[in-house]
Structure formats: C-alpha cells, structure tokens
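user: Kindly work through both lines:
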Amino acid sequence: MASLELEYSLAPTEPMEPFSTGRPTKRRIRGGRGLVLVIAALYFIIPFYAAMQFSLQDIQGHFSLQPLSQILTAPGFVSALWLSTQLAVATMMITLVLMVPTVIYVHLRMPRFRRVMEVVTMLPIVIPPIVLIVGVLQASPLWLKNSQYLLALAYVVLAMPFVYRSLDAGLGALDLKTLVEASRSLGSGWFSTILRVLVPNLRSALLSASVLTLALVFGEFTMASLDNWTTLPVWIALAPTNNPRINTLVAMIFLLATCLLLMGLVSLDRSKSRHSRRS
C-alpha cells in the first residue's frame, strides 16, 4: 500500500486551468459605462452647442459676443432676474427650515413612517403643476394672491421631493442616534443639536437640496405664468426683444450655470470623502 501511494504521488498530474480573475468582465463593464456616458454627454452637448451657435452667430456666419452685452439692456430682464432670485432664496429658506427638522424627527422617532413620507413627497411629481397652482389660487386669501411670495409657497411643494430625498440620503449615512444622544448628554438643546451637530454633517445634502431648489425655481414656467408674474422663464418665453436670440442665450447661460453648480457640488463631495478616508 505504501508503494502504491508513493507511485500515485509521484505520477504526473494534469496542468490545472488558470484561475479566472474576472478582469475582462470589469473592463467590459467599464467600457459599457463609458459608452453610456459618451452617449449621454452627446445628447446634452449637441443641442446646447446648436442653441449657442444660433445665439452667437451672426448673419454672415461669424461668431460674435455682442449678444452678451445686450442681455442687461434687454427690456424687463433685470426685473425678471431679481424676481426669480427673490423667489429662489425664499423657497430655499422655507423648504430647508420646514424639511430639516421634519426629516430628522422622522429618522429618530418615527422610522416606520419613512415609507409614508416617501409616498407623500412623491405627490408633487405626480400631480401636474397647473392643478397645484389653480388649487392654490382658489384657496388663498386676497392679500396672499397679490403677493409674489405665493409662488414661493407653491415652489416649496414642488421642491419637497428633491429636498426630502437629499436629506434622507444624508441622514442615512450618519449614526444619527449616537450624535444626538452625545449632544444631548452634554447639555445641548434640540435647536443647538440640529444647528451645531447635524447641519455640519449634512453640508453635502443641504448643498444638493439648495442647488436643486434653485434650478427648479429658475426653470419653472407654468405656475408663474398662471399667477401673472414675469419670472425669468416667463420672460424668456414671452418677453418681446429686438433680438430673439437673446432669449435663447439667457436660457443656455442659466442651464450652463446649473450644470457647473452640480458638477462643482459633486467634485466637492468627492474631495471631502477622499480627505476623510485619508485622515
């Protein structure tokens, strides 16, 4: 038996197949992602380039920056921009003041209610804005109808789905109970805990919610037009100008500004996460 075992151990064995590391699959997946990103970039870049070419190209086919100097002198542009800025700031402040304590309370005291909150916050996306503004105008008192800030209250409802999901994702990444209990054990009140402990840890979520709110206000047309306020989108669509290309140029400038804000927010979030990992 010992000789048989020795012969078996010394017998040549068949070469084993190399173990698959899975790298080709990852490369294929990365290549597919790159292709999707390129197609998505072309989907946005080509119309943007066409609109900018229409705005900046003169009759002879040469590009000129003269329309940029005509934007500020266009009739009604400054007032429309100021109105949209006021509404954006008011909407952002009201939304954050209402949503931040609410989402924190739901995460701490009513975690089972999060599904209900997700369904409720989806309703402004499902219900058309024209239905919302008609109902708001019918139910609002006369003094509020004559105020421009009625639009801000309506925009709060529209921004609720985006703000809630940004804050929900930010709070989900924190050990919320530990932070709150530690702050409360040191003698801090609820207002101090939210302002000094939770808000600094929610900077990325608050920035993303603010940028999405600004983009919504500067791009909303239906409610402002039905409420008879000339915001920037209403001015772009309806304001008469000597050069109709200015309207398109203004729309593209604000679209580019929104994209740059979002890209800056994403890069800032990534740099902070890398810094935290290194430290």
